[in-house]
Backbone:
């Protein structure tokens, strides 16, 4: 049941990206190009998604179980640290280079785009870099793995 | 700054954004989790029992969306201007950066901001600023 709900959520997410034009890297880059011919569409996509999402998060806020009975697992750390900011800056540079972030990368791969596959493979390799260094740190400190 | 009115698509942006919001809502109301693509995908790097199928299903849903769309209609325009070396560099930076930053446009930008999480707001400001700066350097300083 959770698996079916998860597939449905991913599927609807992908449709939303396609409708919004956000699976099109050229359109994303046109948003990031403030000094050029600026396309503000991405800001409206985020605003609409956040407006709907805020209602859902307000609904689950006081609950410990979801409608399907799963535990509500929302992140609780609130500290803004260097790792968060530096990681996000690095992500932003990569996003600005190609106009692709993780969700659209998967949608692009689904369109059969060769460039989409290359980006996705590199993104998974980038993931591997993180896992490699984090794995070494874990071995060194003997701490339990952190799940995201 | 000049707005490209011919490229601006407010109606589909709002509708598509609302559909993304519905996906995020479905996921948290049914599965109790943040629909953050980088974290969902990244969690597959170290698979744990009982923690794999929902991740694979979410990823499969994202990949299946354009496949299903393509069966029923013509896919919307998709243009990737970046060349292969830039795509490899971008993918590596996005892959590593989102894991260190603990999220991407979906997890921090949509879900985190929806929850008014200070960490997510900081992350979103950081990756947006870096994205704006990178495009400025790439399009106006290096190759104007």
Residues:
């Amino acid at each position: 049941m959770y698996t079916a709900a998860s597939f449905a959520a991913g599927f609807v997410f992908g449709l939303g990206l396609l409708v919004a034009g956000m699976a099109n890297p050229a359109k994303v880059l046109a948003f990031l190009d403030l000094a050029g011919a600026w396309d503000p569409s991405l800001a409206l996509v985020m605003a609409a998604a956040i407006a709907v999402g805020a209602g859902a998060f307000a609904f689950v806020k006081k609950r410990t179980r979801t409608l399907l009975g799963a535990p509500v697992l929302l992140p609780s750390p609130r500290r803004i640290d260097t790792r968060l900011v530096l990681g996000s800056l690095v992500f932003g540079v990569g996003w600005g280079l190609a106009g692709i972030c993780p969700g659209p990368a998967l949608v692009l791969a689904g369109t059969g785009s060769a460039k989409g596959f290359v980006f996705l493979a590199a993104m998974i390799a980038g993931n591997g870099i993180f896992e490699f260094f984090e794995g070494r740190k874990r071995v060194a400190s003997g701490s339990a793995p952190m799940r995201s | 700054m000049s707005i490209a009115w011919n490229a601006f698509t407010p109606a589909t942006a709002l509708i598509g954004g609302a559909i993304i919001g519905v996906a995020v809502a479905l996921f948290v109301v049914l599965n109790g989790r943040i629909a953050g693509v980088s974290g969902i995908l990244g969690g597959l790097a170290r698979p744990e029992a009982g923690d794999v199928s929902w991740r694979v299903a979410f990823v499969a849903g994202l990949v299946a969306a354009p496949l299903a769309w393509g069966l029923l209609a013509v896919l919307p325009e998709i243009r990737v201007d970046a060349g292969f070396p830039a795509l490899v560099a971008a993918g590596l930076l996005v892959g590593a950066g989102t894991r260190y930053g603990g999220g991407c446009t979906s997890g921090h930008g949509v879900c985190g901001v929806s929850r008014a999480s200070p960490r997510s707001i900081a992350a979103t400001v950081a990756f947006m600023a870096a994205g704006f700066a990178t495009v400025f350097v790439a399009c106006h300083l290096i190759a104007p």
The helical segments of chain B are 10-31, 37-42, 53-72, 84-101, 105-114, 118-142. Chain B touches chain A through 118 residues (CB under 8 Å). Residues 10-142 of chain B form one domain.
